Amino acid sequence: MTERTAAAPTLVSLLICDQVIDDRLTNKKSAIGLFNTITTHSIPARLPQVTIMATLTEVRGRTPLELRLVRDSDNEVVMQTSGYVDSPDPLAIVDLVFGLQGIKLPEAGQYAFELLSGGALLGRRRFQLLLTGPDAARPKAE
Prior knowledge:
By secondary structure, this protein is mostly beta strands. The protein has a single domain, classed as Immunoglobulin-like (Sandwich). 0% of the residues lie in helices and 64% in strands. It contains no helices and 10 strands. It has strands at 10-17, 19-23, 28-32, 37-40, 45-57, 61-71, 76-87, 94-105, 109-117, 120-131. The strands form 3 sheets. A 5-stranded mixed sheet has the order 4-10-9-6-7, with no helix packed on it. A 3-stranded antiparallel sheet has the order 1-5-8, with no helix packed on it. A two-stranded antiparallel ribbon has the order 2-3. It starts with 9 loop residues before the first strand and ends in an 11-residue tail after the last strand.
């Protein structure tokens, strides 16, 4: 008899924002300051705070998760964190909030937050880092 592997959770949404407010009275979450683009005057850029909110369903028991930030141009992992999510009911909706601080982005360009479970990519959310100001027009040194 073959052993059945558990199906990966389903990612319902993946948001990038400044903060998430969790109202304990109503059990509602508010994502504040959603964005797809970050501007900076210098490279490398340091992000003081970024919040990622992931909504999952079909979580079966204790499930490993990994959140990665990758640079799209070469898939280099800029940062990663991992842990577990647990849900006794696979029909439940599970909201996860990742408060990230001090992320350093090495160059302007496209990046993506990726959520994985057991090595399987559940989904990704892209954003752009744009260099503005006098340094933006200057060509890169070789």
